[in-house]
Design brief:
globular; 12 strands; eight-stranded mixed beta sheet; Glutamine Phosphoribosylpyrophosphate, subunit 1, domain 1; four-stranded antiparallel beta sheet; binds aspartic acid; 10 helices
């Protein structure tokens, strides 16, 4: 009898010890630490310091703070980095201030065509949608492509039919068009000489893409980005935001990245992936890797913009080569902080 009790206790203790040392049994359900970090951006570009109306500036900072609060709520209660990224970006898509979801900039023919993507640093899985006009929250469509399809990127009608079939909220295309964006579009349209192509975005419109990177208490990274693209873009143009490796990238062994700026440059230089590659292959720390991509690669070639990046240790980088980049951070034990310039 005594021997069997001893054996039982021995096996129990052995099992417990095995679970502690074997990483395969130690992931996903139990938080590995209490640390979590969330970083957001609300687009690079925008005004020179001192030229934005204080009321407007406050609207932006208030909304960025609300977005951080939403993300903090998810992560502090043990939610995953993917859930935090999706929840934060959904909020920013619904907020008319940002160039994503409602409030997106308009194409040269006056429509909102939206792009979004999300990536899971733990599994390497990713999902994206491009050129969609009726999906209320493109980031959730991107998440659904990742979770419920065998694909990474769906565009146009096919993406919309998929989203509808999966039960996502569908809206009339006019839902996305705010009076402010319509006014800016009309103004820009008037400036185009007859027979000429649309000019690139007026400087004041070059802002508002949204992005989020997060580290959860399980040690997993995730990244997401959502945008209406560039003001007066040609219909059918897709930027870097839904391109995995360009506008969005996440890999637990290096970092999570969300970019904003002149998308064509970010695509041509695989910006998001390049930050990760600088860390993995050139062994640079996060900040050096992120600065290298924004300044030494993109700015050197004429590509303006910025990015937010986060590594598994909780280090943060937020370089930008534009006048401003709406951005914010919050983490376990540190209060939310929002900056524009
Ligand atoms: N990168 C986005 C695009 O080119 C725009 C932006 O971030 O401002 O579509």
């Amino acid at each position: 009898m005594k021997r069997s009790v001893f054996l039982f206790v021995f096996l129990l203790a052995g099992g417990w010890l095995f679970a502690q040392v074997n990483p395969a049994t130690a992931v996903s359900t139990n938080p590995v630490n209490k640390r979590w970090v969330l970083v957001i951006h609300g687009g690079a570009g925008g005004p020179v310091k001192g030229t934005m109306k204080p009321e407007k500036e406050k609207q932006y900072t208030d909304s960025l703070n609300k977005a951080l609060k939403i993300g903090a709520g998810v992560l502090s209660s043990g939610g995953s980095s993917l859930d935090a990224v999706e929840a934060v970006i959904r909020f920013m898509e619904d907020c008319p201030l940002f160039n994503a979801g409602k409030g997106a900039v308009l194409t040269e023919d006056g429509k909102a065509e939206l792009d979004a993507s999300i990536m899971d640093g733990k599994t390497g899985k990713a999902g994206a949608v491009g050129c969609v006009t009726t999906i209320k929250n493109p980031i959730s469509a991107a998440r659904t492509v990742m979770d419920k399809s065998e694909y990474v990127l769906l565009v146009g009608n096919g993406a919309e039919t998929f989203a509808k079939t999966m039960g996502l909220q569908i809206v009339d295309p006019s839902y996305f068009i705010t009076p402010e964006r319509l006014e800016a579009w009309k103004e820009a349209k008037q400036k185009i000489p007859p027979g000429q192509p649309a000019p690139s975005s007026a400087d004041k419109e070059k802002k508002g893409t949204v992005g989020c990177v997060a580290l959860d208490t399980y040690g997993n990274l995730a990244a997401g980005t959502s945008t209406g693209g560039r003001m007066m873009k040609m219909s059918g143009r897709v930027g870097d935001s839904p391109i995995i490796g360009a506008g969005t990238y996440a890999e637990n062994n290096s970092c999570a990245v969300s970019c904003t700026g002149h998308g064509e440059f970010f695509i041509r230089n695989s910006a998001g992936f390049s930050v990760s590659a600088q860390m993995l292959y050139a062994h640079k720390p996060l900040k050096e890797a992120a600065d290298f991509v924004i300044f030494d690669i993109l700015k050197a070639k004429g590509g303006e913009g910025g990015l937010i990046a986060l590594d598994r240790e909780g280090n943060i980088a937020m370089p930008f080569s534009s006048n401003a980049m709406f951005r914010g951070t919050v983490s376990a034990g540190a209060p939310a902080e929002v900056k524009i310039y």
